[in-house]
Automatic annotation (TrEMBL):
The chain crosses the membrane at residues 9-29, 41-59, 71-93, 99-120, 141-160, 166-188, 208-227, 247-264, 276-293, 299-321, 333-358, 378-397. Its main location: membrane. Keywords: Membrane, Transmembrane, Transmembrane helix, Transport. One of its GO terms (molecular function) is transmembrane transporter activity. One of its GO terms (cellular component) is membrane. Belongs to the major facilitator superfamily. SUPFAM superfamilies: MFS general substrate transporter (SSF103473). The keyword Chloroplast does not apply. Residues 5-404 form the Major facilitator superfamily (MFS) profile domain. The keyword Transport applies. This is Major facilitator superfamily (MFS) profile domain-containing protein.
């Protein structure tokens, strides 16, 4: 009965990847064409995810009151119009194109926030005995979307020429328009009734939930910081061609991200989620350090790629942890989790861009990197600071595990 709904959710998460990752593929183009800085590029990512946070929190109550369908269709419309504004920004804002980029980012990011809030909730509400598998498969489509966005954008830029990037954006805008019409008619499972719903104060008073919230924030920062900056990192810090960063770095990163989620979606019951997330966090610590400090560009690139494996379960795993512990929380749970993940996804890439601007010499303290130019060392320095995110994830996972053990023992 709900097969078409699940497929629409998969495409929705695919479009969610578009709202988060299309603009970063164009950051270096924007920097050359409009003269923006690393920090300004990172600020677009910050704005993207901050807007999603606001959307997550603002729309959670209306969704509980009026249902999912009006808001999931609104999300697709806003994504469509946001991409139109992005493509037309140089013409609509000829004297301050960066302002136009920011306006477009806000519009399509509200759509992205609605995707974050609603798609997991829609899948969670569908009668199914394997919520972990369903959620992991849903999030795997974010990764597949990531890959297709990278490939399609790279091919489009080569076909249209890099200076005609706006035509690529216009083509991508068709996807949310198509899925808008799909969501007008697919069946949706009934939501949890008001009288049975877990109260917000009960969520916020739970230490376990607060650690889940902190965990999804640093998990989002771990995943998105690497995905947002790999293209620019490979081109500006490693001195490799943009096509290598996009087609090799980003695509393989996303391939590991999606494949791991899909495999866990099929066989996850054989391997505890806690151990999988802990292993992934430790792997990400290693990957961030190697990306920042390796004297060999290809080794740094490989580290960027394998962080996709490490970060693959941090965000969806946190959603599952929260949903399993509070199955009757309704949209409020997904709003807080989406806002937490988006907060990390906003802050992480912005912090890396900020460090690249204000402390670009940080990694040159290492003797083997002392000969790097300022441009080569800038994003490496940002990546080095980014190591703090998976370190914090390990700490929060350990605390959650202790709380779980204490609950089972009592």
């Amino acid at each position: 009965m709900y097969r078409s709904t699940i497929k629409a959710c998969y495409l929705g998460n695919f479009i969610g990847a578009l709202t988060c990752n299309l603009a970063p593929l164009l950051y270096v183009t924007f920097m050359h064409e409009f003269g923006i800085t690393f920090e300004q590029a990172g600020r677009l990512t910050l704005l993207n995810f901050f807007t999603q946070i606001v959307a997550d929190l603002v729309f959670s109550r209306p969704v509980d009151r009026w249902g999912v369908r009006p808001f999931i269709t609104l999300g697709h419309l806003l994504a469509f119009f946001g991409f139109l504004l992005l493509a037309l920004a140089p013409r609509l804002f000829p004297h301050n194109t960066y302002l136009g980029l920011m306006v477009a980012t806000v519009v399509y990011s509200i759509g992205g926030g609605l995707f974050e809030l609603l798609l997991s909730a829609i899948v969670q509400a569908i009668p199914n005995d394997s919520k972990e598998k369903a959620m992991s498969l849903l999030h795997s489509f974010y990764a597949w979307g990531f890959i297709v966005v990278v490939l399609g954008t790279t091919v489009g830029l080569r076909f249209f020429n890099r200076s005609n990037w706006m035509y690529v954006v216009l083509l991508w805008s068709l996807l949310p328009l198509i899925n808008f019409f799909v969501f007008l008619r697919v069946p949706l499972a009934p939501a949890v009734s008001e009288e049975h719903r877990t109260k917000i104060r009960e969520l916020l008073s739970s230490r376990y939930f607060l650690f889940v919230l902190l965990g999804i924030a640093v998990g989002g920062a771990t995943e998105v910081s690497m995905s947002q900056w790999t293209s620019a990192f490979v081109e500006s810090s490693l001195g490799l061609p943009k096509e290598v960063g996009d087609l090799v770095g980003l695509c393989l990163f996303a391939l590991l991200l999606g494949t791991t989620r899909a495999i866990y979606g099929s066989y996850g019951d054989k391997f505890p989620l806690y151990k999988a997330m802990l292993f992934g966090s430790v792997l990400c610590i290693v990957c961030y350090l190697v990306a920042a400090l390796s004297p060999y560009p290809m080794i740094s690139l490989i580290a960027c790629i394998f962080s996709g494996l490490g970060s693959s379960l941090l965000w969806p795993g946190s959603v599952v942890n929260g949903a399993n512990r509070f199955p009757l929380a309704g949209s409020s749970l997904f709003a807080f989790l989406a806002a937490g993940g988006d907060a990390g996804a906003a802050f992480g890439p912005w912090l890396i861009g900020l460090i690249a601007d204000v402390s670009p010499n940080l990694v040159r303290i290492a003797p083997w990197l002392s000969s790097l130019s300022l441009q080569e060392s800038a994003l490496r320095s940002g990546m080095l600071i980014g190591t703090i995110f998976p370190i914090l994830m390990v700490i929060f996972l350990r605390r959650m595990h202790r709380l779980d053990e204490g609950r089972r023992a009592s």
